[in-house]
Amino acid sequence: GEATFGISYRPSSSASALATLIDLSADLQLSPRWTLSAYGGVAPSGEAIRASAPSGSAGSFGYLEVEYRW
C-alpha cells in the first residue's frame, strides 16, 4: 500500500502533504574579514497537519549570523 503520515491517536485521514517550505537567505560581505548572513523561512501547514491538528499551525524559523575570519 501507499505510505502515509500519521501519529498514534492523530490520524492524517490518508493525507501525505506535511507542509511547504518558503524560505529566503542572504549573505553580505562587509569586508574581507566580516560577513553578515540572514535566513528566514515559514512552513504553512499541509493537508496531513490540518487533518491531525485542526488548529492548522504553521512553523517559522529565522536567524542572523556574523562571521569573522582571521
Structure, described:
With 70 residues, the protein is mostly beta strands. The protein has one helix at residues 47-52; strands at 22-29, 34-43, 59-68. 9% of the residues lie in helices and 40% in strands. It has a three-stranded antiparallel β-sheet, with no helix packed on it. The N and C termini lie far apart (56 Å). The model has no long low-confidence stretch (mean pLDDT 82).
Strand content: 35-45%
Q: Helix count? A: 1
The neighbouring-strand order within the major sheet is 1-2-3
Q: How many extended strands?
A: 3
What would you call the shape? rod-shaped
| N-to-C series of helices and strands | EEHE
Q: Please give the radius of gyration in angstroms.
A: 19 Å
Question: Could you give a short account of the major beta sheet?
Answer: 3 strands, antiparallel
